[in-house]
């Protein structure tokens, strides 16, 4: 039986063959890397004086915010922060 290069059903024929792909450069697992990256992101945010607030909105509100943010060339979170600060200033005055 000849070994066909596109045949991947007979795995024993390809046991020694290296598959192309991204080389593993980090000794940590992907899950551990994500945890460390998240921890570092939270530290950066804390240094910048940012706190995390979770907000659940319906699709219509999210779409409207996204369109407005894109039109103003800012991120959606920046737009929400700006809108909240404007409302707070009005209510505190």
From TrEMBL:
Source domain of life is Bacteria
Bias type Basic and acidic residues, positions: 1-20
Q: Where is the Ribbon-helix-helix protein CopG domain?
A: 51-90
Q: Which Pfam families match?
A: RHH_1
GO BP annotation list: regulation of DNA-templated transcription
Supply the InterPro entries for this chain: CopG
Annotated region Disordered: the residues are: 1-29
Q: What is this protein called?
A: LexA regulated protein
